[in-house]
């Protein structure tokens, strides 16, 4: 039985989305059990719809919420009864709990997980690795997308290792093609940080390093993993989302500007609906915080029940495939190589 | 008469595009004259089509080209007969020359301009400021998009001043809304660099600072100028280009996947052509290197004659509206304020 904690508050959809997602996930994975933390009466009311699978749940009452308006460090100190703090405390104190899924405020999750949970042995800093669809029907991971702003070449190497192993473990991508996000593809591009990271990546046997990449190639399907510092990774992923959204909005507006376009679009309704679905990032799961001993998955705040279920499944798969212990092993080998080699 | 140097080699379209662009620009601005540097016989052959306006041109023979494959610093030393090096030498030695337009290799242009041309008094580092269309029918500038990778808070402040004055001078945008590219909109977001830059920007009377912005808002029309370090600015602009291109490619492919979509698209041909034109960055001019005493405009390598003409016009407008001396004045006032205030 794999047991995961679900923070039921903090997302836009409230308990309906989170506890609803719990039911979907429990339905799918018979050896999954969940601890739901939040507004207990509300949680129980949602779970009562499926008493059979609800037997594999426990609930913990923690009705307070940390929002995006709270300063993360203050929130950790002051909101001890919040669902997130209680979830993290449970995870920390109970060895039988494998991971956490939360749709709450990113800053608080990062701060809490970094400060209160242990890192995988040898990992310098945890990193986020969200997933986007690419134009060839596959996916691309971005590691780090915002957990750390200031990095070293060694941290970028670890991001590449963590991200590659994640894509293998959860998405079954064999030997993921990793590239270093840079301002050009040539080896000598960028600043010292990137040139040093390039050298480390090239000589690492645990990364299928394909060289530098530019932001314009992110969705092309040429790479499985973009390795980057949290600042530019965050800029890149938000720029993708914004550009896609704005462009589809513009096309929609333009369609409505002339009768003949509106007429033509009648025949393409299904296609446009599919494009929208294609770009709905919720379909690609949450953003996993890699490098933490216990899996932490940050779901989108606007996620519905099926998006939450997908996040639970990510945490479940990582535990089932022993992501953290395997990562510790590889990191140990790399560190040993760096010392002896 | 405003006299500008045109580097005729280095772009994909060769002399036909550059000298062709020269003719278009000369036709539009009667008090413009040009020095065309490159393959003299080729240039003369293009110019011979319009002997009347070609009277306002001079030509300089420099048939060698610096390509993207040349290492910029080596190229400067070794390719003394290249059109770019000759152009820069002319600009440096002749006070009557106001600026340079080149569609050549970016790295070489940056290196050459930075090393050989004087900076505007008080400016720490020059910056690129390309222009993108926004979804409200306006434009947005990005400063810096890749001239410098490592910045200080003071440099980010200067980028904001340079970019704002550029949008006012060339595009007539009154008091441009400038925002600092960051990982979130809240004041305390990002690293120390961004928090310090935020404080400087907020207290500067020469910038209409509206706070932090995320990459997802770049095209929304809420901001006129994104202020950023060259690394993340470069990542952002290339990600916009890549996402827009990949998405339109996907839509096109999807249209061809079913007969009914193809039929519907027949009525929307003009709309799709307009979307394509809207996203054609060549329509928005070249990327100006701000902070150099003489204007340097980098045109897209794939630019045709009308794109080159637009770049020439940008250099012409900056000179006509005395961009550089006005910038020097403002920078002086800011530095004085920083010392006395």
What can you see in these coordinates?
The structure is a homodimer of 341-residue chains. Chain A has 341 residues and is of the alpha/beta class. Chain A has 2 domains: 1-123 and 291-322, Isopropylmalate Dehydrogenase (3-Layer(aba) Sandwich); 129-283, Isopropylmalate Dehydrogenase (3-Layer(aba) Sandwich), CATH 3.40.718.10. The first copy, chain A, contains 13 helices and 12 strands. Chain A has helices spanning 14-28, 40-47, 51-54, 72-78, 83-93, 106-116, 153-171, 192-202, 230-255, 259-266, 269-278, 305-320, 323-340; strands at residues 2-7, 32-38, 57-61, 97-102, 127-129, 131-133, 139-143, 177-181, 208-213, 225-227, 287-290, 295-298. A 7-stranded mixed β-sheet of chain A has the order 3-2-1-4-12-11-5, sandwiched between helices. In chain A, helix 1 crosses helix 2. Chain A is globular. The relative contact order of chain A is 0.16. The mean pLDDT of chain A is 93. Chains A and B meet through helix 9, helix 10 and helix 11 of A and helix 9, helix 10 and helix 11 of B.
Question: Helix proportion of residues of chain A, in percent?
Answer: 40-55%
Described by strand count, sense and barrel closure, the largest sheet of chain A is:
7 strands, mixed
Which CATH C-level class of the largest domain in chain A is it? Alpha Beta
Q: What is the 3D shape of chain A? A: globular
CATH architecture of the largest domain in chain A: 3-Layer(aba) Sandwich
Tally the helices of chain A: 13
CATH topology heading of the largest domain in chain A: Isopropylmalate Dehydrogenase
What structural class should be given to the helix and strand makeup of chain A?
alpha/beta
The mean pLDDT of chain A is 93
Integer-rounded radius of gyration of chain A: 21 Å
β-sheet strand percentage of chain A: 15-25%
Q: Could you tell me the number of beta strands of chain A?
A: 12
- Write out the CATH superfamily name of the largest domain in chain A: Isopropylmalate Dehydrogenase
**Largest interface, Cβ cutoff 8 Å:** A-B, 55 and 56 residues
* SSE arrangement of chain A, N to C: EHEHHEHHEHEEEHEHEEHHHEEHH
Q: Could you name the ranges of chain A where pLDDT drops below 50 across 5 or more consecutive residues? A: none
User: How far apart are the first and last residues' alpha carbons of chain A, in Å?
Assistant: 41 Å
Strand order of the largest sheet of chain A: 3-2-1-4-12-11-5
Quickly count the domains of chain A. Answer: 2
Assembly of the depicted chains: homodimer
């Amino acid at each position: 039985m794999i047991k995961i904690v679900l923070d039921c508050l903090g997302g836009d959809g409230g308990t309906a989305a989170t506890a609803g997602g719990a039911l979907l996930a429990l339905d799918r994975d018979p050896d999954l059990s969940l601890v739901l933390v939040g507004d207990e009466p509300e949680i129980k009311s949602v779970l009562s719809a499926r008493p059979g699978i609800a037997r594999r749940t426990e609930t913990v009452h923690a009705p307070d919420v940390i929002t995006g308006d709270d300063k993360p460090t203050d929130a950790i100190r002051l909101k001890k009864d919040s669902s997130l703090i209680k979830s993290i405390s449970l995870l920390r104190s109970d060895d039988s709990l494998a991971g956490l899924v939360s749709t709450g405020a990113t800053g608080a999750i990062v701060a809490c997980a970094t400060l209160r949970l242990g890192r995988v042995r040898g990992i310098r800093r945890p990193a986020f690795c969200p997933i986007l669809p690419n134009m060839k029907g596959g996916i691309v991971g971005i590691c780090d997308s915002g957990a750390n702003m200031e990095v070293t070449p060694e941290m970028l190497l670890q991001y590449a290792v963590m991200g590659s192993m994640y894509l293998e473990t959860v998405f079954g991508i064999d030997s993921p093609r990793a590239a270093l996000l840079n301002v050009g593809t040539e080896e000598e591009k960028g600043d010292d940080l990137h040139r040093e990271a390039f050298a480390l990546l090239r000589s690492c046997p645990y990364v299928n390093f394909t060289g530098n990449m530019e932001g314009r190639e992110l969705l092309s399907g040429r790479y499985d993993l973009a390795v980057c510092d949290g600042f530019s990774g965050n800029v890149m992923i938000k720029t993708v989302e914004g550009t896609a959204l704005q462009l589809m909005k513009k096309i929609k507006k333009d369609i409505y500007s002339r009768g003949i376009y509106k007429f033509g679009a009648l025949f393409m309704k299904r296609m446009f609906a599919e494009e929208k679905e294609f770009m709905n990032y919720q379909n690609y799961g949450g953003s996993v915080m890699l490098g933490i001993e216990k899996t932490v998955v940050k779901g989108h705040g606007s996620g519905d029940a099926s998006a939450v279920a997908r996040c639970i499944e990510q945490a479940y798969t990582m535990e089932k495939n022993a992501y953290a212990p395997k990562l510790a092993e590889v990191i140990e080998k790399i560190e040993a190589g760096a010392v002896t080699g």
